[in-house]
Structures are given as structure tokens and as C-alpha cells.
Amino acid sequence: MAEAVNPLRSSLLQGVAHGFLTREGGVSTGMVAGLNVGRGAGDDGAAVAENRRRAAEAVLPGGRLVTVYQVHSPDCVTVDEPWDEDGARPHADALVTARPGLLLGIVTADCAPVLFADTAAGVVGAAHAGWKGAHGGVIESTVAAMERLGARRRHIAAAVGPCIAQASYEVGEDFRAGFGQAGDAAYFAPGRAGHYQFDLAAYVVGRLRQAGVGSAGALGLDTYGDPARFFSFRRATHLSEENYGRQFSLIGLAG
Fold first, then answer.
1. Is the pTM of this model over 0.90?
2. In angstroms, what CA-CA distances link 46 with 26, 34, 95, 145?
3. Residue 112 in contact with residue 130, Cβ under 8 Å?
């Protein structure tokens, strides 16, 4: 029997079609075996397309998948009409919509995926928040874009999905020095000489709370430390692998 697609859910987004996908349940083989949805992973295109279809059907059956070309930016786009997923896509790192039937998708492999919903207003969002995007303002851009569609900050719930955990994320002094805001030091734990362990998930949750969302929290799952369930860029780099898979995080409004 084929392995089932296994979306992870957050209690913060109860009642909203959403899922943080693992690598379980896909058709890819080799070092990206499983539910790889990354087009830049050196995978067979037909396998990626089938994995994307399976992921979407597991979260919002019949929904129209919409993604962006992610560039580690603070930019967010509003989706009124779906575009051709096989054609040119906007360069951005977050999406929001108030249109039922659209399924917003973010691809990650250690960066933090964030799913947002204001159920009262009928507005959802998804953001790719690596350290660069989170530090640059992608969280705030997403919240502002949701507000323009009628959401209210205090009504927005946001969940941070699987990402690289503090114990797995060693950084140098130069990296730490780039975080100069009051309170940022709390996200860095001392490591070996001249190094620190950065808590990306806690940092993203902190930015969400500073942005004024009503509720925010993280699943607390480490992509680096769980190779059976998650792809990881840093793990693949440490193992000198030629490429790495990516997993989906999806959210949409039922029609």
C-alpha cells in the first residue's frame, strides 16, 4: 500500500483548510524521495507535478493551487485570480487572498512557513520566512496585505510550521550582529567559541506578536533533525548531497 500524504495541522487555524506537508506520501525517488514539491530539486517534472497534486487534494480538494517564485524578500502579493503555475509567477515570498477555492502554497526546506487566517473576515495568507525575509519584513507585509482585504490584526491567527530548530541552527558572530533590535539577543543561545544557536521559529513568532496578530505559535518541529519526515537544505549541505527536496505549506478558503 502506498504511503499516505500526511498534512500537519495547527489548532490555531482550526476550521480553515490548511496543512504543513511532510515528505510522506509522494512519488519522487532517490535523495528527494517522497513528496518533493520543489521544481529546483533536480527531480523528475512529472513526479513533482503529481506530488503537488496530491498535496493540494489532501488540504483543499478541488482547490486551485497558487504559488510564487520565492526570492527571500519581504514582498507579498494579493491573489484575486489564479495564474499559470507553469508560466511566469510573481517574484515574492508571501500571498494573501479572500477568494474561496484558491489554495496558497509556500515551499520550504528549513525556512519557516507561516500560515495566516482571519476567519471572521474570510482572509488567509501564507509566507516564506527565512531569517532574511523575516528580518526584512515579510511578516509585516503579509499582515498589512490581509488588512487591505478586510482582515483585522487582532483577529488574525498565525501558525509557524516545521523549520530548522535552534539546536540545529549554528550561526556566526557576523550573523548575530545583523540583529540589532532590542530583544533580538533573546533568540541567540551561546554555542561553540564565536558561534551561536539561532531560534528562527521563536524569532518569527516574536515578529508576529510585534505585528499585533491575535494569536501566534509554532509547531516546534525540526526539519534538520527529522530526515524521515522533512527535507532540509542545511542537512543536505552538511552531508554533501547534490540537491535537496522541498515541502509544501498550504492554506485556502473552502468554496
1. yes
2. 12, 13, 25, 34
3. yes
In a domain, 5, yes or no: no
Show pLDDT as tens, one digit a residue, over the chain (255 residues). Answer: 467 898 999 999 999 999 999 999 999 999 999 999 998 888 899 999 999 999 999 999 999 999 999 999 999 999 999 998 888 899 999 999 999 999 999 999 999 999 999 999 999 999 999 999 999 999 999 999 999 999 999 999 999 999 999 999 999 999 999 998 878 999 999 999 999 999 999 999 999 999 999 999 999 999 999 999 999 999 999 999 989 999 999 999 997
Domain region containing 198: 11-252
Q: Is residue 4 part of a domain?
A: no
Contact 68, 53 (CB under 8 A): no
